[in-house]
C-alpha cells in the first residue's frame, strides 16, 4: 500500500534528520529489511521470479511461477536446531529455492548453506504411506558481499555453480542439489559494459544504494519496478523505522567487529613486541654468554701459555744449575 502524502512528508523529514543531506535515495539490498522488501514480498514476486529465471535459465528453462514458503523451518525433533531463511520459495514443479544474502564474511558459511539444504530435502518425506525416495530439486543461492579466501586468486570469476560430481571424470553424479555462490565484489562491470540481463541484475543488486536515478541502460519495466520499490521516500513510516533499525543494527555489528579487530591487532602487536623483546634479550644474553666464554677461553689459554713459559724457564734454570754442580 502506498503511503499518503502526509505520511510520505513525515518519512522524508525523518529521513533527512537521520541521514542528513547526503542520504541514499534507495534502500540497501544488503540489509535484511532491504533484501526482503525487494524480493520477499508478494507484490514484488515478479522481481524474484525474473532474477531466478536469469540465474537458472540454462539449466531450468523458464520458471513459470513461484510461491513463498514459511521462512522459519523446524528440525525433525522438538529440540532440533531450526533455520530461518532470507527467502524460501518453490516453483510450479515443486522444486525448492533458498536465497540468502550475506553482507559479512562468516566462518563455515559454506557449511551453513549445506545445513540449510537439508531442510527442504527432509521436508519432502511424506508423513504417511510408503515412499520411493524420489526428490524434487533443491537450489541454495547465496549472494555474497565478500569473497571467499580460497577464491581470491580468481578475481574475474564471481559465479560458482556447485553440484555433486565424480572427482576423476568431473561428471555430474547427482543433479538435484545445486549451490550457487555469487561473489559480488568481483563483479566490476560499469553500466556501459552490461551485456546480458543477468549482468544488469548483478549491477543493480551491487550498486542500487549508490545510485541517484535509473541508468538509461536499465530502463526496462522490471528494473523500473525495482527502483520504485527501493525508493526510501516511498516507504511507509513503519517500514522506514524498520529500515532505520536494520541499518543501525548493521552499523553496530560493523562497529563491534571493527573494535574486536582493532583490539586483536593491538593485542597481537603487544604480544609480538613482548616476544621480540624476550627473543632479543635471550639472544643478547646468549651472545654475551658465548662472547664471555670465548673471551674467557682465550684469556685462559693466554694465561696458561704464560704460566707454562715461566715453568719452562724455571726448569731450564734448575737443570742448568744441576749441570754446573755436576761439573764440580
How would you describe this structure in keywords?
328 residues; six-stranded mixed beta sheet; 50% helix; 7 helices; 8 strands; two-stranded antiparallel ribbon; 14% strand; alpha/beta
Task: Describe what this molecule looks like in 3D.
- By secondary structure, the protein is α/β, with parallel strands linked by helices.
- It has a domain at 26-230.
- It has seven helices and eight strands.
- The protein has helices at residues 5-19, 32-39, 45-60, 109-122, 197-207, 221-230, 237-327; strands spanning 66-68, 72-73, 83-84, 87-91, 96-102, 138-144, 159-165, 172-183.
- A hairpin with a 4-residue loop joins strand 4 and strand 5.
- 18% of the residues are buried.
Q: Strands of the largest sheet, in order across it? A: 1-4-5-6-8-7
Please describe the biggest sheet, giving its number of strands, its sense, and whether it closes into a barrel: 6 strands, mixed
- Let me know the number of strands: 8
The level of helicity is 40-55%
Put simply, the count of helices is 7
Amino acid at each position: 500500500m502506498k503511503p499518503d502524502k502526509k505520511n510520505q512528508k513525515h518519512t522524508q523529514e525523518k529521513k533527512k534528520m537521520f541521514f542528513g543531506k547526503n542520504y541514499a535515495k534507495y534502500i540497501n539490498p544488503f540489509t535484511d529489511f532491504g533484501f526482503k522488501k525487494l524480493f520477499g514480498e508478494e507484490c514484488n514476486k515478479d522481481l524474484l521470479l525474473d532474477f531466478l529465471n536469469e540465474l537458472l535459465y540454462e539449466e531450468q528453462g523458464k520458471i513459470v511461477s513461484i510461491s513463498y514458503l514459511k521462512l522459519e523451518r523446524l528440525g525433525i525433533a522438538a529440540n532440533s536446531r531450526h533455520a530461518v531463511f532470507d527467502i524460501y520459495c518453490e516453483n510450479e514443479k515443486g522444486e525448492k529455492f533458498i536465497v540468502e544474502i550475506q553482507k559479512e564474511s562468516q566462518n563455515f558459511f559454506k557449511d551453513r548453506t549445506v545445513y540449510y539444504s537439508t531442510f527442504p530435502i527432509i521436508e519432502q518425506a511424506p508423513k504417511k504411506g510408503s515412499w520411493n525416495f524420489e526428490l524434487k530439486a533443491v537450489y541454495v543461492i547465496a549472494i555474497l558481499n565478500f569473497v571467499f579466501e580460497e577464491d581470491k586468486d580468481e578475481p574475474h570469476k564471481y559465479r560458482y555453480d556447485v553440484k555433486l560430481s565424480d572427482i576423476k571424470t568431473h561428471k555430474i553424479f547427482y543433479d538435484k542439489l545445486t549451490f550457487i555462490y555469487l561473489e559480488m565484489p568481483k563483479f566490476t562491470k560499469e553500466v556501459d559494459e552490461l551485456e546480458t540481463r543477468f549482468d544488469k541484475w548483478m549491477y543493480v543488486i551491487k550498486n542500487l544504494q549508490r545510485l541517484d536515478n535509473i541508468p538509461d541502460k536499465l530502463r526496462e519495466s522490471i528494473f523500473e519496478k525495482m527502483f520504485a520499490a527501493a525508493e526510501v521516500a516511498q516507504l511507509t513510516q513503519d517500514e522506514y523505522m524498520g529500515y532505520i533499525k536494520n541499518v543501525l543494527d548493521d552499523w553496530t555489528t560493523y562497529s563491534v567487529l571493527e573494535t574486536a579487530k582493532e583490539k586483536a591487532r593491538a593485542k597481537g602487536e603487544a604480544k609480538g613486541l613482548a616476544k621480540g623483546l624476550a627473543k632479543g634479550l635471550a639472544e643478547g644474553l646468549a651472545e654475551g654468554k658465548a662472547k664471555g666464554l670465548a673471551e674467557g677461553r682465550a684469556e685462559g689459554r693466554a694465561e696458561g701459555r704464560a704460566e707454562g713459559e715461566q715453568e719452562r724457564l724455571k726448569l731450564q734454570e734448575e737443570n742448568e744449575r744441576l749441570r754446573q754442580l755436576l761439573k764440580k
